[in-house]
Design goal:
By secondary structure, this protein is an alpha/beta fold. The chain contains 14 helices and 14 strands. The longest helix is centred in the last third of the chain and has 17 residues, at about 235-250.
């Protein structure tokens, strides 16, 4: 089995069924992938409803009764044990994927995975309202009905090149990530001491990052997040803050502690105060401060938007190799995300010059 998609699930039946339907049109062979669903104690076992879809690929549905230890991290770890794939994709149950989703997830592992341990992530567009889904019709992601991922603004400011983004591990959201089974065998899965909402995926990414795993952003695996009510309220803040304190106790290091900057977003009172001051994108404001603080720790200058760049349009990799040791100039590389995939991944896996930005359009 080449690839397993692990989906934790709890009480979002209609959204999960849409997600499964979207896998029907994948461009890779049906025998190359499986979907492993971990039902974390939903009110109803829905295996019969999944079978009623008559999908022609392997779906492995597993129901676990809910108890005090139930959490997203435990569900994903159970999915890892049930999976057969060499590459593991972690996906939320409310994501709709494109037909080439699995093909694109596999690409950097097939091309560069023999020499690199990789943790890959993609972004999402979010429905602002419930939109009927038909897998035979392409969703048109207009600005009215779909919201952008906040991380897209991070990329505009800093780069698509994760080799120069010091806080890249904080951009890894487990709604759409992949790594190899061998990486998890070496460094472990998700820590199920993270309970409630938040940071179990961030700690997973940070642990892999510390152990030399390369974090790669893939612009070709964007998913659609289906609409449902989603509040950053007092309950979510309490859970995030508890997990944050556990994170610090596990990794008592300055980069982890600096995540306290994000309290301005997760604390509803602090977030409201920021918004009253006219700060529209509070999470983005927090990440900019976080990234610049990490760069100061590394004796790197903070990002300056008005820098003058030497622009390289779709350069050959040989050209990038020639400027690896040039430290007195700042470069921006512009390329196509679909036509220049090797360049996009090479920059993130092998680049050592912190002054080379990458923008894949």
């Amino acid at each position: 089995m080449r690839i397993s998609v692990i989906i934790p699930y709890y009480n979002r039946e209609d959204l999960l069924l849409n997600t499964l339907k979207s896998f029907q049109l994948q461009t890779i062979n049906k025998d190359e992938y499986e979907i492993v669903i971990i039902d974390d104690g939903s009110n109803e076992n829905i295996e019969h409803k999944i079978k009623a879809l008559k999908l022609d690929f392997n779906v492995n549905y597993n129901y676990f009764h809910r108890d005090s230890k139930s959490c997203a991290a435990l569900a994903r770890n159970r999915g890892i044990k049930k999976s057969k794939g060499e590459i593991l994709v972690f996906l939320d149950c409310d994501q709709i994927v494109s037909p080439d989703f699995l093909e694109e997830h596999l690409y950097p592992f097939d091309k560069f995975g023999n020499n690199n341990d990789i943790l890959q992530f993609g972004t999402r567009k979010s429905m602002r309202r419930t939109i009927p889904y038909n897998p035979e019709q392409q969703l048109i992601t207009n600005k009215i009905d779909f919201g952008d991922d906040s991380r897209d603004y991070v990329f505009q400011i800093f780069s698509h090149n994760m080799s120069i983004v010091k806080g890249s591990w904080h951009l890894v959201f487990s709604n759409n990530i992949s790594t190899s089974k061998k990486v998890i065998d070496k460094f472990g899965g998700f820590d199920d001491n993270f309970r409630g909402w938040g940071l179990e995926d961030t700690e997973f990414a940070y642990r892999l990052y510390k152990n030399g795993v390369k974090i790669v952003y893939n612009p070709n695996i964007e998913v659609i997040h289906q609409y449902h009510e989603n509040f950053f309220d007092d309950k979510r803040y309490t859970e995030w803050n508890r997990n944050f304190n556990y994170f610090i106790s596990k990794h008592p290091e300055i980069p982890v502690q600096l995540q306290g900057i994000f309290l301005d977003f997760f604390d509803p009172v602090k977030r409201a105060a920021k918004e009253q001051k006219g700060i529209r994108f509070v999470w983005l404001d927090c990440f900019i401060k976080f990234e610049n603080a990490l760069r100061c720790l590394d004796d790197r200058p903070v990002n300056k938007i008005n820098n003058l760049y030497i622009t390289l349009i779709r350069p050959d990799i040989d050209e990038i190799e020639m400027i690896q040791d040039v430290d007195d100039k700042v470069y921006q590389v512009i390329c196509y995300k679909d036509k220049d995939k090797d360049l996009v991944y090479w920059m993130q896996l092998y680049n050592t010059n912190p002054n080379i930005k990458l923008y894949a359009v």
